[in-house]
Amino acid sequence: MDSEDCHGRYQTEKKSVEDYNIWAQEYLKRTAWGDSCRSWYKNNKTSGQVRGVYPGTTSHFKNALERIGGEDFHIKYTSVNRLWCLGNGEMEEEKDGLGDMAGYFKEGVWG
Fold first, then answer.
1. What is the rounded distance in angstroms from the CA atom of residue 77 to the CA atom of residue 4?
2. What pTM was computed for the model?
């Protein structure tokens, strides 16, 4: 989002945080951290919310980051027009006619 003229001015929607925490705790109940043992993940207690651990696999985390939706954030843009992030209509790779001008074509897909 930094390349989209936001420059760190985002605030997570409160409802999104609440929903995430409920979802995360449900997942973490099924893990070793959910057992009734003393853990710093549970503020040195034997029960309670598990904190500091992503509730899923590394692959799941990567995929989740790729699908984060703007609806979960209040975004304050630095420009008057929030669509300035679209730039000049060209990709950096297309600048001066250099680079792959049709990277979306995959060999074997189009015949």
1. 8
2. 0.61
